[in-house]
Amino acid sequence: MIEYVIPDFNIDQIARSGQCFRFRREEEGRYSLIAGGKWLDIEQNGETVRFSCTENEFEGFWRDYFDLNADYGRYKSKVAKRDAYLRAAVETGSGLRILRQELWETIICFIISQQNNIPRITKCVDGLCTLFGEARQRANGEVYHAFPTAERLAQCTPEELSPIRLGYRAKYICATARQVASGAVDLEKVACMKYADAKNELLRLTGVGIKVAECICLFGLHHIDAFPIDTHIRQMLDAHYPKGFPLTRYRGFAGVMQQYAFFFELETQNNR
């Protein structure tokens, strides 16, 4: 285990924020996570965070994954003093970060997310990995599964995905996997594109509409100016920003503000 003091970081908030679906809560203040084919245990007490990896692995993968080089205190300081709603949202989700996730996994997870809730998305993603992901083994012998590759899912039919209960999303996943595996949509090129160009290219994928493309840009490409609008955000905009969200004020990091607002809406809904 290695240990760091990290401000503006709360693993519980990040795990429940709806941007990643491979977190598992082990106990209070402790989570496990699978990303990049790696298993990580995380423990947090205040600003002290412990990671079950080597220093080299942390610096080579996890530091970037958790976006730890970014100053989220600076983002939060930009919130207008008169904006009571967004200030409350930032206070509620003060430890959120925009994860730098693998693009292919993000595409499939957010296709699954359509008309779905976080617990069910998590269950579907877990089923997909268990059935079609490469088996890996932890040091203690426990077996887990990496996220399935596009090549593996391209071999599947919607019927083969039926045990996961993906519904209409199964045909989207199979078709998108074939587009990516064949090179019809080149994810390496997408990863190098600017936000608008990447979004347009992602819209070519079967089952990817504007909201899902925005989510992929934000969570899979780290275009943090992306501003996905789902039901929660639409209701928030109607209630608090009828003239439109002040995107100009937050130019360059509007997606960070979106994540604070989205998490705040989730928390408010769960506490009703």
UniProtKB/TrEMBL annotation:
HhH-GPD domain: residues covered: 112-266
UniProt-listed Pfam families: HhH-GPD, OGG_N
Signal peptide: none
The species this protein was found in: Agathobaculum hominis
Descriptive protein name: DNA-(apurinic or apyrimidinic site) lyase
Catalytic activity entry: 2'-deoxyribonucleotide-(2'-deoxyribose 5'-phosphate)-2'-deoxyribonucleotide-DNA = a 3'-end 2'-deoxyribonucleotide-(2,3-dehydro-2,3-deoxyribose 5'-phosphate)-DNA + a 5'-end 5'-phospho-2'-deoxyribonucleoside-DNA + H(+)
Documented EC number(s): 4.2.99.18
Keywords, comma-separated and alphabetical: DNA damage, DNA repair, Glycosidase, Hydrolase, Lyase, Multifunctional enzyme
Record bears the keyword Cytoplasm: no
Similarity section: Belongs to the type-1 OGG1 family.
Entry-linked SUPFAM superfamilies: DNA-glycosylase, TATA-box binding protein-like
Tagged with keyword Hydrolase: yes
